[in-house]
Amino acid sequence: MPREKHLTVDVINLGVLRIVCLTCQAAETVPVIPHYRPPARCPNHSCAATWFVPKTPATRALQHFVTRLAALLEQRPEVSASVQFVIPVSV
Ligand SMILES: [Zn+2]
Predict the structure, then answer these.
(1) Ligand 1 centroid to 2 CA: how many Å?
(2) How many CB atoms lie within 10 A of CB 4?
(3) Per-domain residue ranges for the chain?
(4) What is the distance in A from the centroid of ligand 1 to the CA of 59?
């Protein structure tokens, strides 16, 4: 039976996010910037799967997540706390 550990990542160390196509496994990196716009389609032209349709809840959620994360990173020097993601890892 696998033991479960956790990996913690401070948001300041995230760098970029990555979107992976569930159809062809092509990937695109996402800069953590204000006014981010999620890609509508897979960047692999032979695939072109629909990713994020503008103005849908999923698209707005990703856009909001990235732009608010950028705002948090901008405000980082004013915060005396570490904001971390906790990721379960099976070992
Ligand atoms: Zn694809």
Answers:
(1) 32
(2) 9
(3) 4-90
(4) 17
